[in-house]
Every structure is written in structure tokens, then in C-alpha cells.
Amino acid sequence: MKINLGNILSRAWQIIWNHKVLWIFGILAGFANGAGSGNSGNRTSSQFNQNGNSNPFQGGQMEQFSRQFTEFFQRYMLIIIAACVVIFILSFVFYALGMIGRIGILKGVFKLEQGAASLMFAELWSESMPYFWRFFGLNFLVGLAFLVILLPFFAIAIATMGIGLACLLPLLCVLVPVAWVVSVILEQAQAAIVAEDLGMVDGFRRGWEIVRSDVGGMVALALILGIGGAIVGFVLALPIILALLPLILAAPSMSSMSSIPPAAWVSLACCAVYFPVLLALNGILLSYVKTAWALSYLQLATPKTDTPVIIEGNA
User: Fold this and answer.
1) Under 8 Å CB-to-CB from 11, ≥6 apart: which residues?
2) If we measure between CA atoms, which residue out of 291, 294, 221 comes closest to residue 18?
């Protein structure tokens, strides 16, 4: 193991504590992390069991549903299109802010390790902009590659009502470590783009070289940051989970808005109050994680060498 894990973890905390402007970039970086998803399989399964047959649309129900959907879309077409455009624009804006947040943390860490005494938000923001499209393109291409790989799985799951996923489960298990390895390479590639002013392809190649130069160190650091970050993230989210318990427990007895008990409204109010705090704490956590990855890149990209000591002899 070439990297010094103890030095990386302690130095990362020292940097973000002494330069809290990185917390702001950590909050921004959080906008590019995570995504929500829904699942309607339970409802379909219950209808299947109740009907007792393999076709949930019989007696012209499919044609009626299609006709109603077409009429609804034609009536509210402009509203639907406008809503989709607004959602797309907002998603891009928040994702762009997330990219700037990641770049800002890397830029700030590299400036400090090169001898900068302080960091200014406006300065980091302006210095991060030249790397934006390279960051965006690299993350977009990696995400697109995984989407292309996963599309057949989704298609088979829909076509077979989820039964086909049982046969594809071994392949899905293989994709998990592959995605994990790619994420580690991506961390180092992003650092290389900022530190060495590289393009997307050269940055990814450089990231692979860095990871390959110390596989054991990268695995250890990824496990520490991944497991530790997950534990801390769960602790941070625990107040919201506890606050939502009354609402979850009261959900089966609620038939309308008027039947929502006062305790449920209190739960929602507590979540609304705590959410900005959670956002800030998650930003601090993310700034620490990204700082640690940046320091690992610096240790491997510029390894320390022992300078020979030259002893001059007496003339």
C-alpha cells in the first residue's frame, strides 16, 4: 500500500475544518448525488392475484384505458410538455451545480496543498468553470454506458413481469463490483482533470493509471469512505426517520386529508425544519469524502522520493 491512509483522513478533516468555504461546495456537490425511483410492481401483483388470471386488462379495459390516456394527453398536452421542460431544466441546473461543487473542492484542496493560505468562494467558483464541460461529459458518458448496459435488464423485467430477473441475478451481482471499481476510477479521473488540466479521455486514462498503481490502497480507502460515509449518513438521516414514524404508523387509518392526525402534521413540520440542517451536514460529509479522494490522488501522482544525502569530503 503506497498511500498513507492515516495522513489522508486526518489531513482531510484539517482542511475542511480550517477552510469552511469547502462546505458550501460540498452542499452543491450533493445536488449531483443520488436519485429517486418508484416501483409499481406491488400494485400490479395485487391486481393479478385478485383477478386470478394472467391478463389484468380484459373486457375492453385496455382499449378504454388507452382512449382515456390519449384524451387526457391531448387536452393537457401543452401543460405536460411545459412541465417536462421545466423539470429537465431544473434537473440540469442542479446537476450542473453538483459538478461545480465537486470541481471547487478539488481545486481548493490542490491550491492549499500547493501553499495557498486561504480560499475564497468567488475565486474557486471562477477557477472551476473551465473544467465544467469536461466533468459533465465524463460523468455523462460513464452514466450513459451503465444505462445502455442496464436497459436490457429493464426490458426483460417488464416483458416477463419480473420473473426474468431471477435468471439475470448473477449478471447483476457482477455489475455491482464493476460499478464500484468504475466509481473509484472516476474519482481519480476527476482529480486528474483538475490537477493536470486533462481532457475527458486522458483524464479517465490517468485515473486508471492512478488506481492501478495502488490497488490495495484504493480498495482500503474506498471501503473506509464508503462504509464510514454510509454510517454517518444514516445517523444524520435518523432524526427524519424517527420523525416520520408517527406518519407511517397512521397511514393505514388515513382515508383523506381531514383524517390525518395532529401527530403526523408535527412529523412533517419537524422534517421540514430539519431538512436544511441535514442538507448542510451532508455537504460537510461530502466535502470531507471528496477532499480525502483528492489527497489520495496527490499522494500517488507525486510520490515522495528519498533524496540522497551528499556528504562533502574535506579538501
Assistant:
1) 295
2) 291
pLDDT tens digits for 1-12?
Answer: 889 999 999 999
How many angstroms separate the CA atoms of 104 and 25, rounded? 6
Report CA Rg, the chain.
25
Q: pLDDT category, 254, cuts 50, 70, 90? A: low
Q: What is the mean pLDDT of residues 250-276?
A: 72
Phi (first) and psi of residue 311, to 5 degrees: -100, 115
- Please state, in angstroms and rounded to a whole number, the distance separating the CA atoms of residues 194 and 249: 49
Record the cell numbers describing residue 12, joined without a space: 482531510
Average pLDDT over residues 250-259: 60
Asked if the structure places residue 153 within a domain, the reply is: yes
Give the helix ranges, DSSP H, for 121-160.
121-128, 132-159
Phi, psi torsion values for 213, nearest 5 degrees: -70, -20
Which residues are CB-neighbours of 207 under 8 A, at least 6 positions away? 185, 186, 187, 188, 189, 190, 191, 192
Cell numbers that stand for 120 in this block: 475564497
Residues in the chain: 315
Residue 42 lies in a domain: no
Averaged pLDDT for residues 191-215: 93
Residue 262 in domain: yes
- The answer to whether residues 301 and 195 touch, using CB atoms and an 8 Å cutoff, is yes
CA 114 to chain centre: 28
Q: How much is the mean pLDDT over the chain? A: 81
**For residue 309, pLDDT beyond 60:** no
Q: How many domains does the chain have?
A: 1
**Residue 44, in any domain of the structure:** no
